[in-house]
Amino acid sequence: DGMTFEQFLAKCSDKLKLPEKKFTRCFYISNAAEVDDPDDLMPDDKLFVSEGEDFKKKATEGMLSSGLNAIASGTSYVYSKTTDFAKSQMSEETRKKFEDAEAKAAESLAPIVDKIKETTAPAVEWTDKKLEVAADTVTEKKKEFMASETGQYLQNKVYAPAAEKSKELFAITCTELEKMGEKSKGSMVSAQEYMKNVKEKMGKEWDEKYAPAVKQMYEQAKEKGKQTGEALKEQTEKLKKNWNEQVEPVLREKMAALNTNPAK
């Protein structure tokens, strides 16, 4: 709290152990929105920092390849956290020896890792294609099910009402953001204050499961304010799409429970 953006980026350089890097920009990995105020960040936000380059999310990967990447990232994160703590307990001389050993190991293993990737790539690609075919089959089965009597019941009693309620809640979050913008004379209020006001406005409709969607709404709204023309239209549609993807499943659960136990 109270840290300037420049101080925050300098801290990122220290944290990543890249003192030679002069970071100037920061993005949320979740939606590629640019961060301009470190006070808006939450503890679990995943970020990308750059020396001026834009952040572009990679094209969708196959199921297996994306899963393997997630495992690799998670393993790397655990190793980093563990060794950071271990090194904090070492003397300066021991810590330097340990870091030198890490650097030599990384240098030696790099060619081996690249060779493994090269060798396994065809197998991973083949598996991903098979999984895509399976996913298409599931999609077709889903269409058949939704056309059935049970599927129609779910559509009328669960899916449609959830979609309608999602629109209502989306409208509340948009209206509250506009009100707060007017009160603060065009400047953005903090994410925490926005969250608090949305909770109060929704009242009994509020569910803590909406929190990630509201937070993302805030981030995207800041990005939206910097755009015009087609870019603004695209960002608005993206904002609605992301909201529905996160909120509608929660509402479907509520609608399903309501229809299963109507007395409640």
Structure in words:
- With 264 residues, the protein is mostly helical.
- 70% of the residues lie in helices and 3% in strands.
- The chain has a two-stranded antiparallel ribbon.
Provide the descriptors you would attach to this structure in a database record.
two-stranded antiparallel ribbon; 70% helix; 264 residues; mainly alpha; extended
What is this entry, summarized?
The chain has 264 residues and is mostly helical. The chain has helices at residues 5-15, 63-88, 92-147, 149-183, 191-202, 211-224, 229-260; strands at 25-28, 47-50.
Please specify the SSE layout and strand pairing.
Blueprint: H1 5-15, E1 25-28, E2 47-50, H2 63-88, H3 92-147, H4 149-183, H5 191-202, H6 211-224, H7 229-260
Antiparallel strand pairs: 1-2
Helix pairs in contact: 2-3, 3-4, 4-5, 4-7, 5-6, 6-7
**Rounded Rg:** 23 Å
Report the principal-axis shape.
extended
Tell me the structural class.
mainly alpha
**SSE succession:** HEEHHHHHH
What is the count of helical runs? 7
- Binned strand content: under 5%
Distance between the termini: 44 Å
Low-confidence stretches: none
Strand order of the largest sheet: 1-2
Total number of beta strands: 2
Major β-sheet annotation: 2 strands, antiparallel
Mean pLDDT across residues: 76
Helix content: over 70%
